[in-house]
Design a protein that fits this description.
This protein is an alpha+beta fold and about 150 residues long. It contains three helices and five strands.
């Protein structure tokens, strides 16, 4: 079922990954009312601490990768129809970084920018951007999200 959002993904040259399966005692997503809560998605292919092992530029790309995984999970939650999404409500971003690294918001902009590119104005959202001492599987970035659907 190719709709407006699928056409936008194609126009941007973006391909969604296969939605990752849960690796512990949680579910990848859960619907409550008209909201979808998506568990944290790590940055496949980007591991290590920012900025020592992963450059800020690559960490920004890692946040985009995490964002694409969020959307892949969202597509599954919406039974394949991303046109059901009426808004990106909130993103929570985590950066595996050194204690003195202060550019955390600029890294998480990778996921935030992606949401606006794909969903336009409904992609604008509330957000938290946090530095972490470590992330699962030594990922450079992890992003979670809450989306509104119809």
């Amino acid at each position: 079922m190719a709709g407006r959002i699928d056409a936008r993904l194609k126009e941007l040259g973006l391909e969604l990954p296969e939605p990752p399966k849960a690796v512990a005692n949680y579910v990848p997503w859960r619907i409550s009312g008209d909201q979808v809560f998506i568990s944290g998605q790590i940055s496949a292919g980007y591991t290590g601490k920012v900025p020592d092992e992963v450059s800020p530029e690559d960490a920004y790309k890692a946040a985009r990768v995490s964002g694409l995984s969020l959307i892949a999970q969202l597509r599954t939650a919406c039974e394949g129809d991303l046109d059901r999404v009426t808004g990106v409500i909130r993103l929570g971003g985590f950066v595996n970084c050194q204690p003195d690294f202060a550019e955390i918001p600029q890294i998480i902009n990778g996921a935030s920018d992606l949401m606006v590119e794909i969903f336009d104005d409904p992609g604008r959202h509330a957000r938290a951007a946090v530095g972490a001492v470590n992330l699962p599987l030594n990922a450079a970035v992890e992003v979670e999200g809450v989306f509104e659907i119809r």
